[in-house]
Protein 1
Amino acid sequence: MSVQTLSLTQFKQIAFNRDAYIYYMFLGVLFFFAIILHDTAFLTVSNFMNIVKQTAPLTIMAVGLTFALAVGHIDLSIGSVVALSALVGALLLQYTGIPLAVAGALLVGITVGLINGFLIERLQVSSLLITLGTMGIITGIARQLTNLESVPIINQDFTYLFGAGKVFGLPILLIWTLVIGGLAYIVLNKLAAGRHLLAVGGSPAASRAMGIKVTRVRIYALLASSTAAALAGLLYAGRLHGARYTLGEADLLTVIAAVAIGGTSLFGGRACIIGAILGSWLMGMINNGLILSGFSTNEQMIARGIILIMAVAIGVKELKNG
Amino acid sequence: MVRTALDQPALELSSIKKSFGGVHALKDVSFKINKGEVVGLLGDNGAGKSTLVKCIAGIHAPDGGDIKVNGNNVIITSPEDARAVGIETVYQDLAKIPEFNIVQNLFLNREIKHPNPILGWLGWLDSKTMIKRAKKSLNRLNTRIPSYNEQIHNLSGGQRQAIAIARAVNWGADIVIMDEPTAALGVEQSAQVNDLIKVISSQGVAVLLISHNMQHVVETCDRAVVLYQGRSVADVAVADVTKEDLVGLITGATDAAA
Ligand SMILES: Nc1ncnc2c1ncn2[C@@H]1O[C@H](COP(=O)(O)OP(=O)(O)OP(=O)(O)O)[C@@H](O)[C@H]1O
Ligand SMILES: [Mg+2]
């Protein structure tokens, strides 16, 4: 394309594009903390690597949840899947090697995703209610499984692969984030499969009329969200050298806020993977900044709630404006 | 524009029947459409027009009767079947994803894949080719579109209808069915859609047009088939009748045989 001059309307379209909010938010918050925390370690590479490492499971969950939201569903069971998958992985590691343990943990996600998908389609009930139900069931199973005991992991290869490892000097958790994020980006933006996910979220009736297998597409989306949560469980287990039923428990709000602030519509039809990743890094940065500023866990929780409502408010305003 | 309705039947319906429980929506419908011909399907509310369209489009299975496409008997049990034999249906408000742009809508579920076999197998989209083809097909229909990146919901009703029609033709449909394509449109946009119908029929496509608007029928159709209580009761050349004649046939005031 030849050299173009940017007209004012074009500039507005780019600058006030919904997808661009996350960049402003990100820079704004970064700037804000950089100033008020200038005498702390906030603005250091190692602090940022810490944030990325800490948020890796959240980021993977956010990427997965983006798929569910793309088709117009929500998946509340992801937090509970994190716990159960981590526990199953940790328990299996006591008897077998990494491949089987990882397969077992991922199978938790696959199973839950399929159950969620089938129940929603079969009963024609909102995903909110079905996944709220499965969340309860899975949380119960996770608590029952080890009687609230935590399960340590001593397998060094596992904790390297899913936690402490480094590749080319980069933390392996960053690599996991980038690989999963990259794959998801390709699926959603470059492949026909992603086009169909978004079409189903945009208008199920129109998708059906065009011959898209709407039911199948929606089940795949829930499968993706739940399998990603299972992987997040492994990343938690790897970083923390063990699993506990509380893992992922408090993540749901953060993940939904991260995805929403990243430009994905909570009502289907629009999804942004880069936004989901930046959104969860943003949530991590805010947490980190609040901790360094001396705020308590409770206050951080309030901040997350406010951010979620802000993100949703922006989304709803967009929806009304057409 | 030269339009020549060839004397080659594209679609032939004989004795189509369809009941819903005790309601005999279609009792006996027979008519044919030639290639390049625009046939209006008229009838009062409840006459069975939409039911007939759904039988042809594969949404309902008829209880009896035969459908022939290009002279061959076909059995249509799903929208995919209908598409496979070259029948496309343009719905008033279906089949458009509001968040998608024009190209994405035009190629929905018929995306052009990357020529590289591996990428193609993965379903990697060939956006450049799709944009190129979209331009070509909209140009062929004389449709002016502001920008191919425009989201569908920013277009006028007439432009959206044009996209839906372009999509049907794009997929090599020989037969295009339109259920009240201008029902929600203003005068100017209806005229645009009517022009478009003439363009595609001049390219040899057979069009079945359902409309309650006599003016549009008279302007665009070559023939009119009238349904009355589930039966095809008249099949007339539009040039030979007046609007009043058509209204008489629709209401049953005029006996078609007379
Ligand atoms: N799915 C269905 N179940 C039961 N009855 C139906 C169904 N679809 C149509 N009918 C009945 O079949 C008859 C024909 O309906 P149809 O919708 O085909 O009429 P129409 O000619 O399209 O009317 P309109 O001009 O109002 O759109 C009506 O009596 C209608 O109530
Ligand atoms: Mg009707």
Protein 2
Amino acid sequence: MNKESKHDTWFRLDNSGKIFPEVSSHRETNVFRVAISLTEKIDKDLLQLSVNTILSRYPMFKVKLKKGLFWSYFDYNSKPFIVEELKHYVCGEINPKKNNGYLFRVMYRNADIIIEMFHSLADGAGVIMLLKALTYEYLLLTGKDVKPDNLISTKNQRPSIEEYEDANSKFYNRKNKKHVPEKRAYRIKGSPLSEDLTGLISGTMSTKEMIDLSRNNDMTITEYFAALMMHIIYVTQIQYRGHISSNQKPVKIFVPVNLRKHFPSNTLRNFSNFVKTDLVMNQDDISFEYLKSLVKEQFKKGMTKSELIRKMSENVAFEKNVFLRFTPYFLKKYALKIGYNMLGVKLNTMSLTNIGKVDFPESMEPYVKDVTAAVYSGRYNTLNCSIISYKDRLKITFTRSIVETTIEREFFRHFTNLAIDVEVESNYVEEY
Amino acid sequence: MKYCDKCKIKIDTKKTYCPLCQQTLSGEISDDLIEKYPEYISINRKVYPVTKRIIMFVTIVSMIILLVINFATYNGRLWSLIPIGSIFYFWILVSVGIFSKANIAFRLATLTSLLIALLVLIDEASLSEGWSYNYLMPILLTVCNLAISVIILIKRIDYRDYILYLLTIVIFSIIPIVLVFFKVITIIWPSLVAFGLAISILLFIIFFFPKSIKDEIKKRFHA
Ligand SMILES: [Zn+2]
């Protein structure tokens, strides 16, 4: 790319990305994090150099958000990107004014590299690709003999259009876009933490043991965790209190589905959808066994190709609506806000994201100890959970905006009671 | 590694308690351990400073008083709009002109357009002599056009960010000529100068930056 064409780069926001700038605030940040632990202390200057390399390799991240007449868009950002030291914030708001216009952060602490990304720009799978590429460049700069083995896109490859396509509109089907109205979900109760605080507790378990455990139940790991989460929310918050009015609302666990596994696309932009568990839990005798079979059935229904396309098309249809399209942006953002209130976070009790297994080339594995994923928690989803695994380490990270840790405690005790080892990490929010 | 007997979990920390159940942890930890996550340092959210609130309150109250006096002693002229408009403009000047980190061309274009609006308001609310249309509107537009052009010539790298604001002011510069046709403007030469400069700048952009202006419009107006 020559200098001239680089400055001309701009991108449309993808379908899901369009909504986030309008509905994000310091409480609902729509920011998520992936982190990697290496074996040695991070060198700030080398990290800065590798980020610079990565930004010229992935122009879709070297952008700022700008407003157009009808839609906002990502425009080439000529300002420098600066890496920072990790602060106590977990998935805090990304304020472009304080961040040279960039919509993501790269931070370091001890041997960890942390990327926090605004959801408009990419989804979990996209950021994992970025994290891998960044780690590769960093290890290379520290003089390690690492090879990309086709698992990593290096600076020697040219950016491809496929990396930033909006795959949602590609698979959009006009005939399958029916809107299915949904009820507001049950909200996990607790005393709110101070606004600049997010509690984080993660537990690491053996991937193999987890696979065995869920196989014995004839489920996937995600299904097992979702069912267990339903069960724990039920036991700790609802059981024997079925008469209370707020307990009449369905408990819904929102589980993002990485559509790259279902439809051919290599985009780094948002390309995910969801399945949900959904049950009003006002009975006194809901068993874990029942929840397991329910979750399996609901996931099976939600994951059929036609249902995934329907959910995707429902969103794209909203954007393609002629009236909305030609409404000036400053009015449109209100329409988007209202639409989001009907479709958004209030419809979920919590989100459970399984990023899945992260693979590194064999030459990189000796230098990578651990990976972590986390999502923001806000006013409506007071507790969220992300899962990521690397080799035999499966790590579940809870982030919360409430003081109580009852659900996390019961969740991890469920496994320790099954004699499965759990190693915990926490950001210790002690003084409220 | 420390250990919680109740939760049966392991944890690497210098802290005393289990993060899950708040029980005392057992076991020892090496002294050189660095906590995985940094300590929480409370940062108070910024509140409006008291002085700012006092000034805001005083200005709003004085605006109301001015309006009340004006209507109580109404003689066919809304003279109170002159101080009220000036106060508004002063606030915008401070916030957009000094404290805003926005694009300089945007700031110039906004402040100039609003200044013209204010001057027209003062002119109309006082004796309606037309000095604002006849002289100040075209002259200010000319100055603003020249200023943004100079900025673009100096800051070559970011010129794409500025070109749309230049174009806006160029289009605004056609307004005085239109007003000449409607006989609102009677002194013609300042408007002609503004128009001439605007057309020259427009032609310059079209001849020398045709692609960037097309791109900028495509970006801003994609639906
Ligand atoms: Zn404990």
Protein 3
Amino acid sequence: MIFGRYVSGDSFIHKLDPRDKLISATLIIIISFLANEPLSALILGLICLLILLVSKIKLLFFFRGIRFFLIMIAFTAILQLLFANNGEELFSVGPIRITSFGAKIASLTFFRFSLAIIIATLFTLTTSMIQISDAVGYLIRPLKIFKLPVDDIVLTLSIALRFIPTMLQEISTISDAQKARGSSLNSRSIAKKIKAIVPILMPLFIASVRRAEDLATAMIMRGYSDGKNRTKFRIMKWKNRDTLIILFLLFLLIFFGITKK
Amino acid sequence: MSNKALEIKNLSFKYRHNSKETLKKINLSVEKGKWLSILSRNGSGKTTLIKLAAGLLENSSKGSIKIFDQEVNQENFASIKEHIGMVFQNPDNQFVGPTVQDDVAFGLENKSIERNEMIERVDSALKDVEMIEFANREPNSLSGGQKQRVALASVLALQPDIIILDEATSMLDPKGRKSLLKLVQKLRSQYKITVIAITHDIQEIEQSDQVIIIDGGKKKLEGKPAKILIEDEKLESFGLEVPFTKRVRKRLFELGIILPNDYESKEMVANKIWKYYSKM
Ligand SMILES: Nc1ncnc2c1ncn2[C@@H]1O[C@H](COP(=O)(O)OP(=O)(O)OP(=O)(O)O)[C@@H](O)[C@H]1O
Ligand SMILES: [Mg+2]
């Protein structure tokens, strides 16, 4: 499973502004819901393929990573194909009737959901967590009008993200320690498993409380009071190419919107 | 600026829900640019003492705490913490940023420092701690010693007058410990920083100008490391490990070989033994 993973690189796609990538990914998914005929589907499919190639992500790695989703989507599509009854009959085998309508919605379902998964995966593969949180933080800035402490939320989010690997490591250390003491973590019985989880969660919880205290002290001593009036070290640079990409997608959106039957 | 980095007079402290006082009538003074080591067994109030000194705990006793002649209290907290940088025991718990350079920049961002200056200061702090090649690394790809260097850089970028190390080397391996100490020593003389270090490490104590031992909330011993480290019976009674060289000297004494009775580093004792040996 590679959805949510980041593979660092320096491709054109990696270097795009994360805000651009976030907006563009959303736009492409919206457009895919307007595209309901082979030509527009083909155009979108080609766009995805282009992004995938430009991002220099290995095709085999990519499709293996999303294989599970694709199979699930295909399964759903096949069910639609089998059970949709209206429309012209194309052919029938025993009790199963395949209709033109069924074929149409099945292919649309497969196309739209696969495209959404592909685009979302491409986004997370080429954009680091911290860039995503910066981009989200920027895009929700208008919510400041409603007194939402956007800067604090973004900082909290970025600290939380920073500690995920640390905590995962801690979990594995603690569970190794518990296993060494004969914990039944690998036992088949669910009840035993749940019982074995408690002695892992407790030390983790205590360590986290201690960590939060240390972290708060460290932040205070380094002059943190609240999100206001902080300058930014990490900046995002919006370039002309980012504007062009958005304009192109908006054009597609409008075009497909108008020509939609 | 005054010559006294820290001056504590008659300081007592009790946590609200504790029945006993954690600190009892502590007096202490550290001159600018000196290195003070604070020694004691676990739970005897070292962290409490430095938290009070930094204004992180409220001093409700009649005693006084001054940082460069300024009284430490709630009103002065903002200017007190400008003087002080702290490095803690656990390397992970003080790493705020997603990458090394972001972490060093964190304190500068808080002080609304303009971005170009920020980049310069982050760079120079990372060079100072020899971590510049790691600027883009994430914390999880660093060793404990490297994380402590980053913590030191984060503090240095804010140009403190006093650096407080709360068992900052205790989770490091001997090599990491040695190199961090060397670094602190170098930075101290380069920037005239006062160092206050809580420690159990003999090497760290050897490097300092002044040592105090706290036990049961009271200051029990104070002096130069050479003087403190020969008091082995007392050290032992405070639950501290007696230095290796001292134990060697004692064993030799029992065998009828007398080495001069003042504390010296391992290398010097080894030298003396060599000399003695070649005379035999
Ligand atoms: N927030 C608190 N509330 C109540 N009591 C506390 C608090 N923090 C510490 N203490 C108690 O105060 C005493 C001194 O604690 P302190 O952390 O200062 O010791 P220490 O010398 O730093 O110990 P260590 O070597 O373990 O770091 C301990 O008995 C501790 O239980
Ligand atoms: Mg402590």
Protein 4
Amino acid sequence: MNRKSLKILSLGFIMSILLAISAFPTGDSIPTGITDDNLVKNGCTCHTDGPMSSDVVITLSDLPEKYNVSQVYTLTLNISGGPDALADGNQGGFFIQSNYGTLESIDNNTWMPEGETHLTHNEEGNNYREWSFNWIAPESDSKVVKFTVYGNSVNGADGNAGDYWNKGEFSSAGVNAKIAEDHGELSMPQKLIYAFTVLVVTLSVVVVGNRMVVNDQSFEDVIKSYWKCVYPWLTTTDHKYIGTLYICTGFGFFFVGGILGLLIRWQLFEPRIDGDFLTYEEYNSTFTMHGTTMIFMAAMPIIFGFANYLIPLQIGARDLAFPRLNALSYWLLPTGGFVVYMGYFTGGAGDVGWTGYTPYATGDSSTTPGTDFWVAGQIMLGASSTLTAINFLTTMLRMRAPGVTMMRMPLFAWSIFVTVFLLLLSIPVFTVALILLMADRTFGTLYFDVAAGGDPILWQHLFWYFGHPEVYIVILPAFGVLSEIISTFSRRPIFGYTSMVYAMATIGIISFIVYGHHMFTTGADPLFRFIVMLTTMLVAVPTGIKIFNWLATMTGGSIVLKTPMIFALGTVITFTIGGITGIILASIPVDVALHDGYFVVAHFHYVLVGGTIFAFLGGVYYWYPKMTGKIMNEKLGLIHFALSFIFFNAAFYPMHNVGIEGMPRRYATYDAQFTELNEFITIAAFIFGFAQLIFVYNVIYSYKNGEDAGNNPWDGWSLEWATASPPPHNSFTEIPTLKLAEEED
Amino acid sequence: MSDDHEHHGTIAPFIFCIGVALTFIGLVMATAGGEDKTGDTGYWFVFFLGLAGLLTGFFMWVQDYWDQDSEEGEDIEVYHDFWGTITTRKFGMWIFLLTEVMVFSTLLSAYLRYRAAVPDYDSNLAECVGIDPCWVPAADIIRSHLIFGVINTFALLLSSLTVVLALYAARNNNPKATTRYLMATFALGALFLILKAWEWGEMKNGHFWSDHCDPLKQDIANHCIAPKYEHGFWLDTSLEGTTFYITTGTHGAHVFIGLIALLYLIAKANKDGYNEEYHDTIELFGLYWHYVDVVWVFVFPFFYLY
Ligand code: HEM
Ligand SMILES: [Cu+2]
């Protein structure tokens, strides 16, 4: 296939997508799952050739507007109109089915055919036009129950002539159900997402229109010129382009997730009642989407972005081993992210927490398709990470330049090496667990179904087998970044390189045997808990080694305080606090009290924001000159750091306090005694959020106005500083050879 | 030197991913969308559109290899001796298989977790007549027509051999024999899937309990297996069904994907012919195929015998 036909093919495909999108709302549903098959079996069988007639009026009385859980209601179905009946003959028939709850016959006039769920008349019942029966409401209070009724009004004569039938629909809702009227009202996150969509569309219309007018170009020309800009990005397999895409997508999601986080904080500004700001249900989906976005669509993509950009440069390779696979990994990210967010366009996003615990995730409580979208999107993201891991491991084991032995790789490269190993062994497990969950939700399998003997805790085992290595997957690369920055700005090689490598490898191995510390309160085997407690505490040893090595590196060095270094220093402090609270939580008796409370929230934000995000913000300041050829503005950088550091601590430190005092996490409201601290936290969080805008401004501003960087603005030692900034198309014109300083040329 | 690793861009991954996303969106909306969340069948259209996109992306991807003399491209120079002289593609395949090991480990450990916790039906009959937490293994149902599972096992093992023979033939510059052996592999794999589908159908539609059965006695020969299988054995019947169908189904999906790859190999062998120099892809496929085989060696005793 040549280029042109390729282009036509892809254009055609994109056109058909647009078509599909425009066709979305027209898909008509069959409300109660009643099929023709049922129609054939129902009382109207012998009359269906007659016309549906509006003369026949069907009423269903005594049906409550809001039902009570499991209550028995006696309903009366009446048909009127239609032909006059013969005095002694048949008068009518009916068929009724509800999508939730159970129907029950209470007299001799109605019956339920075996293996069916609908009620219909029998021979006796044929002589009436009114029937009574019981309906037992479902066990869940969040259902919207629909009744589909067919009524037949007959004249009693032989044959169908003169018989008329009609169809009726009735409904009743649980007290907690989202009823159709509610759909009109948008939730806060929905409003934001819609507003964002509208903004993007308007902007693009304005930009395109502006160009058409100003340059006097036709619409086609403008689109063509944009296409020329965009097409290389859609088709690229170059690790630097893909790295850039990853980093931009990651930070994009970081801001979306940040807005969701601020919504959470605004909800918790004061104790709320349902719907005061967010409804309780919306709150659930807000923290679910926040967590999912931050871990899978922000932290990991930012990490992979840097890895993509830097690893080939650091080990002296031209690209990754499988560039196309790399493009596939990347494209699964925005598309998978979109699928996860689809929930917002279909009535409510996933609301089962980023951990997706069963039976909550399989149960009735998660009725919106948002949770199904959450599962589906996560499967795509899991596939993406798996492919990335394969790609990087192959690259790093096979494609190092002459002289770059394993033990001469920069520590960032080592951290990615350990990370992809963890990914390789953990993320397929999560992905398979998600597939099982999807099978349970969609195809009726019973993996996590308690009633069938399934074990919901199995989900927790599978999830945390992945989940704990996952938290190291996001922190180890941050360790790598810190090591690079601290060594460069202390003007000294890192202290104890070998012990750093072994520490990371040890953390990686231990991370697989400690996951049980997330499950102390599940009633797990005491021996299992005990082992897990000890191994968890053991993690402190290699982690401590790393922290002390960084300190030792600085001790003998002459420190240069530039923005990246300041971020690195701040990270060491906040990460250490997070590490210490981790050890506190590892103790079983303490954790039983603190589990699922705000202390845990404080812990993981200290390690994730104070560790990963801070380190990678430092990483942006550090490598931005390599990627763009410009240095970022120092002054703005300092302000950004100061605000971030102060208000991060102001926002998250008090969470320890409210956590110890007993404030639980994942609730949309709280006891009034926590109000003051929560107000303080919320205000600090908002300032922290707005401080990030300075960073965005700096990135854009410096791209045009920054100082020229040259190849090596920081006097770094690793190989990426040996090539031009930004690096040439093939990264290295010639594969370099790494030599020790003492070696002869 | 600078242009022999020139990056040829490709839109295929992008299209493929859009296709995957639409497939999922269609699936979710068709099964859980609509006003009352029981599915909006209009969305199957989106599902199939997604599948079309996914296939388009896939074919565009394969097209590039198809047009080249070989799939290898130039291999990347290796400066560090790690795992001897194997190619980078082969190395990547090994690592991919490692992730695949994790996939089946997960499925098998989920199965063993339930299997270990629940007493077997026939060992503890009096206690668990008709009660759900009693494991009635799929093996009991299969036993009366185990012969198909056995044929399948031999078919797969044999197909592992034919792949090796295909590779051997390619190495000996015998393109005819290569094609023949590849076709034999395909036939054996297809046989496997056909027998499997037949067996699934039997189990799904069979009746394994009736009024004449003695509630205290499992009588496999007379189809008295468990009251809960009165209406057949399917993935939503019981945990036994769920684990059986999902695990063997995942394995079957791997065989299916293998067959698609084989179609490509056969066509390519017909067009250009694999030979002494270019046979790498057959070898890679062979690795995958052996792996699928090895998985079966675990799945078979776990689900068909035990
Ligand atoms: C010094 C090492 C660490 C130790 C000993 C440790 C210990 C723990 C423990 C015991 C819990 C469970 C608390 C509970 O739910 O009751 C926990 C939760 C958590 N940790 Fe850590 N941790 C450490 C480092 C990290 C790092 C580096 C990260 C991520 C970058 C992290 C992220 C998390 C997250 C996200 C949770 C909460 C999971 C959830 O329930 O949603 N931890 N940690
Ligand atoms: Cu953990």
